[in-house]
Design a protein that fits this description.
Elements lengths: L3 E3 L11 E6 L9 H7 L4 E8 L11 H20 L5 E4 L2 H12 L3 E5 L4 H16 L3 E5 L7 H8 L8 H10 L25 H10 L41 H12 L2 H6 L18 H6 L4 H14 L11 H17 L21 H8 L6 H13 L4 H14 L5 H11 L5 H11 L11 E2 L3 H6 L4 H6 L19 H7 L14 H18 L14 E2 L4 E2 L4 E2 L4
Parallel strand pairs: 2-3, 2-5, 3-4, 5-6
Antiparallel strand pairs: 1-6, 7-9, 8-10
């Protein structure tokens, strides 16, 4: 266990410990060492979540993603109330909100889970300085990944962080066992906040959990249980939405979903990510990524649960990079890259990123984001993303390749921002790493392996049922033309009720022509900066490319 402590030099620790645990990610009661530390020796513990205006921007973080987060903290509040506590939700800048709470509650200890994203690093350093000014002891615990990213860096002893997956797997193996799962916080472990912040029912649970037959009698008008409540979307400046909730947020849903998959031992031992379908009408993968991103599910719990299932299975099972354990290692790989690489989410100033002169065409970018490219498979993938907040990793691959080196020649940074907006599992390190990979800007260098926006989807869905679901305008189009409706005779289009150019757009580019042109541009960019950004392409652990990729032979990468 790694922790960091910050306190004002010479400050005396108070005999009475009042802890504030600051939830950011790690939105769970299981495997939460920072929350356990908050409980240690405390008279009162205040679990806090701060709605930072830095993130509450509908044009940056979409309504479905924000709704998922609100659902997750609501479930956290429910779970805390079940054990006699509650979540205190505060709106404002952390640097302004936390000092006010330190003073109001007499806080002596602050705990939180470490965060490796650039904004979080700056924010947390500032908060630690403010805590020291208020004589508040700070303890920070890494529990969002299997190992602390900084521990990987220390293990390398000054060597470069591996940018090849198989090299990273060797580094992971050298780290020793993954830390065991910390005990779940329950009523016996968690001291309640001051009683005036609890409703009568919650106070009774708190008294029972702390071993008291009855608590201090507090008149109802002194109760402040309505303060610090979890707001709705409109309370944050977001529009309300009636979009169906396919993946409800929260620890409860996360654990149920994990257990459902673990119960299917055959699925666990035979899982191969490349063999799952990008256009299945029901997800062919676990869809645990949104829960891992928000920390509603501990990656360590999932890892140890997988290892236990595999150990009890008598027979062969799949291995990284394609197995489920392999997917967790992809996540670790990209988290390490994000932590250790300067300007990881940018082209300029990023030491592992090739400098490629991407175009800037707002119309092409808008057509791609708004599902108006004229390529049904691409538009169906984007429609699913916008309407549901999740798409299969190969659908993400197809969208990313199409926007960048495959067809539109737009910057991967623009694409990453769009995915950040719509994906429920928008994870800064993983999302950035995948865009660097798919644009052939880092990690992967076979830029001539391009996903066909026509053939790739047809490989697993010849009849186009996925397209019919997400693009109803094409529902009656014959299967022969479902991936290329512009090739249908005018009479067929009219009979199908979908005339290209009237009911559905013409293709924004001619893939057959433009993909060859862009291969030439990529070659020129590679030749122009062979030294810059050429470091660490994947040379092992890859699988042959899926059918539907343009080119002959080749390999493709598996997403975390």
């Amino acid at each position: 266990m790694t922790s960091a402590a910050v306190s004002k030099p010479g400050a005396k620790r108070a005999a009475r410990t009042v802890s504030l645990h600051w939830f950011r990610k790690g939105l769970r009661l299981h495997d939460n060492p920072a929350l356990l530390e908050a409980c240690e020796g405390a008279t009162h513990v205040y679990p806090v979540f701060i709605l930072d205006p830095h993130f509450a921007k509908p044009d940056v973080i979409g309504v479905l993603r924000y709704r998922f987060m609100l659902q997750t903290i609501k479930n956290l509040d429910d779970n805390l109330r079940e054990i006699g506590s509650r979540l205190f939700v505060v709106k404002g800048q952390p640097a302004e909100a936390l000092p006010r709470l330190f003073r109001e509650w007499g806080v002596t200890k602050l705990t939180f889970e470490s965060d490796t994203e650039p904004y979080a690093k700056v924010r947390d350093r500032h908060v630690c300085e403010l805590a020291a000014e208020h004589q508040v002891h700070v303890q920070i615990f890494p529990s969002h990944t299997l190992h602390d990213p900084e521990a990987y860096v220390a293990r390398l002893q000054g060597k470069d962080v591996p940018t090849v997956y198989q090299s990273f797997v060797k580094l992971f193996a050298s780290m020793g066992p993954v830390a065991p799962v910390a005990p779940t916080v329950d009523a016996k472990r968690l001291p309640s906040p001051a009683p005036e912040y609890l409703s009568g029912r919650d106070r009774k649970k708190a008294d029972q959990g702390n071993g008291h037959a009855g608590g201090e009698k507090i008149e109802e008008d002194r109760t402040r249980s309505d303060d610090f409540s979890v707001p709705g979307l409109s309370g944050i400046g977001y529009p309300e939405t009636d979009a169906p909730t396919l993946y409800p947020g929260g620890e409860r849903a996360a654990l149920a979903r994990m257990q459902e998959h673990l119960a299917n031992v055959k699925y666990i031992v035979t899982f191969e990510k490349p063999k799952t379908s990008p256009n299945a009408l029901r997800p062919s993968t676990t869809v645990l990524s949104p829960y891992l991103k928000h920390g509603a599910l501990s990656s360590r719990l999932f890892y140890h649960s997988l290892c236990s299932t595999l150990a009890q299975h008598k027979g062969p099972h799949t291995q990284p990079p394609v197995s489920l354990v392999g997917q967790l290692l992809w996540r670790e790989f990209f988290y390490l890259q994000g932590h250790a690489t300067p300007n990881f989410d940018k082209m300029v100033g990023n030491p592992i990123c090739r400098q490629i002169p991407w175009g800037k065409d707002a119309e092409l970018l808008g057509a791609w984001e708004e599902a108006r490219t004229g390529y049904p498979f691409i538009d169906a993938c984007m429609t699913q993303l916008r309407e549901e907040g999740w798409i299969h990793h190969l659908a993400r691959h197809a969208l990313a390749c199409f926007l960048t080196r495959g067809d539109l020649w737009q910057s991967w940074e623009e694409g990453a921002r769009v995915f950040e907006k719509y994906l429920l599992d928008a994870d800064w390190s993983v999302n950035t790493g995948n865009w660097l990979w798919l644009s052939a800007s880092a990690f992967f260098h076979q830029y001539f392996r391009v996903y066909s926006p026509v053939a790739f989807g047809a490989k697993t869905d010849k009849e186009g049922e996925y397209i019919r679901k997400y693009l109803p305008v094409l529902r009656k189009m014959p299967s022969k033309y479902i991936y290329e409706p512009w090739k249908a005779p005018k009479g067929v289009q009219e009979t199908a009720g979908c005339v290209v150019g009237r009911d559905y757009p013409h293709p924004v580019v001619d893939h057959a022509t433009v993909s060859k042109q862009l291969m030439g541009k990529m070659k020129a960019a590679y030749d122009a900066n062979k030294e810059g950004g050429a470091k660490g392409e994947e040379k092992s652990g890859e699988k042959k490319r899926p059918a539907g990729e343009d080119g002959k032979g080749g390999k493709t990468k598996k997403r975390a």
